[in-house]
Amino acid sequence: MEFSIKNDNPTKQHSACIVVGVFETRILSYAAKILDKNSNGYISSILKNGDMDGKLESTLLLYNVPNSKGNRVLLVGLGKKNEICDREYRSIIRSTFNKLHDTGASNASLYLIELSVKNRTLSWKISQTVIDAMEGIYRSDKLKSKRSNSKQKLQKITLSTTKKINTVSSNEALQYGLATADGMNIAKDLGNLPANICTPTYLAKLASKMAKKYKLKVTILTQENMEKLGMGSLLSVAQGSNEPAKLITLEYWGQNKKERPLVLVGKGVTFDTGGISLKPAASMDEMKYDMCGAASVFGTITAIAKLKLPINVVGIIPTTENMPGGKATKPGDIVTSMSGQTIEILNTDAEGRLILCDALTYAERYNPELVIDIATLTGACVVALGRVATGLLSNDNKLASELLSASEEAADRAWHLPLWSDYDEQLRSNFADMANIGGRDAGTITASCFLARFTKKYRWAHLDIAGTAWHSGSKKGATGRPVPLLTKFLMKRATKKISRKKA
Ligand code: BES
Ligand code: MN
Ligand code: ZN
Questions:
Q1: Predicted local confidence at residue 137, as pLDDT
Q2: Which residue in the list 288, 353, 453, 488 is annotated as catalytic?
Q3: Which pLDDT score is estimated for 308?
Q4: Would you call 386 exposed, middle or buried from its count of C-beta atoms within 10 A (0-12, 13-18, 19+)?
Q5: What domains lie within the chain, and their CATH numbers?
Q6: What gap in Å lies between CA 492 and CA 148, rounded to an integer?
Q7: Is it the case that residue 117 has pLDDT exceeding 70?
Q8: What is the pLDDT of residue 502?
Q9: For this structure, is 428 an active site residue?
Q10: Which one of 37, 94, 156, 279 is the catalytic residue?
Q11: What is the pTM of this model?
Q12: Quick one: DSSP state of residue 501?
């Protein structure tokens, strides 16, 4: 799908479908009014008949609108005037694309970016429209022998407006939206792949392909390499599986190499059975999504490489299966991490932190400006925040607020949880430096306390995406989150740098 932005009058549009909004109750938006006048009141007469009253999520498709140059006019409900916030705007875009998808239209002109959305700029509306449009047409059907509706009819989308706009900043917003959507699609595709295809070796090969395509530096550490580095914690998770673990690093150097890089670490457990502490059978298939942290790193690095952001970013992906094989780690086993700290593994299902801790120690060699890890780490996070917000914990309050404002701008929700040392006691072990679990209480926080013991040398934040990385039930599928949050965070860092240079 191609997008462009155009300043034009709806009566002049030749597109297959012109999309204009209607507020509740039967109040025409500015663009709809122009079309109505041009058609001698045809649109308002139809509304008067009671076919549509402008409720959010409602649509009405019209053909042969008098004097219109377009083939179709799609009216979309906008809900109450003056009440359009992010959620409403995004739902308007989604209903529009659901409906457009069902028509035969190959192109469409949307008069929606000129609607006023509370606390949001034109640039936000442009990028969000692109992101939600791509979301609306995303299908994961590559593994079906017959693809439904195999050809995507909708090809060209024009974000139209009757108002004069700044073409430079609008175009930047468009590019930003496209890159974010592409990054999300990569994260979704990877997440949705089954674990018999998406193995650690598969991810390593993909990283090499990506490196070629976007001129990144890639390094793949084998189990032997990791043994030499002393990554006893990471390897203890891999030892129950026949698939060899890998540690993948992807380096994007968008500016002077002297500038310290921002490091993203993504949990890449390609399937989490729980190991010897085996998980129950119900919904275990969803544990193919336990590499969504890794997938978000792949997606985000693609997005920033496409945008050619002037920053340095290193992605580190520890990847393995967690299986209950004959050589698997047993509850009570004690291992030594790369940092030298010893860990009593009381539950082999708390494996994410075991692979992350060695990757976080490994991150030290990049002398990072900051480190962010992204992981489907705890079921407790789903209990605490549901499937709405990503859990955010950090050893640096400034970094946490920077991430929160990126999250707010990207409409990719996150919520700050405390990382007080009071919780740290829960990790006490009689036999090793720490246990890998902290009991039932505050599971998301104790998991973070565990990681915090390996991140003392730099500014660090942890994103627990257990509730936000995928949808369950009939909508089952990866969400592509938190690629929008991360891409926005990096984008803001890059623009700050540019403006600092100019000043
Ligand atoms: N990958 C899971 C976390 C998870 C569970 C994410 C369900 C999304 C949905 C993680 O490896 C895990 O099993 N965590 C355990 C930790 C516990 C044993 C301390 C959990 O949350 O139950
Ligand atoms: Mn687990
Ligand atoms: Zn897991």
A1: 87
A2: 353
A3: 98
A4: exposed
A5: 2-142+152-165 (3.40.220.10), 179-497 (3.40.630.10)
A6: 39
A7: yes
A8: 66
A9: no
A10: 279
A11: 0.97
A12: H
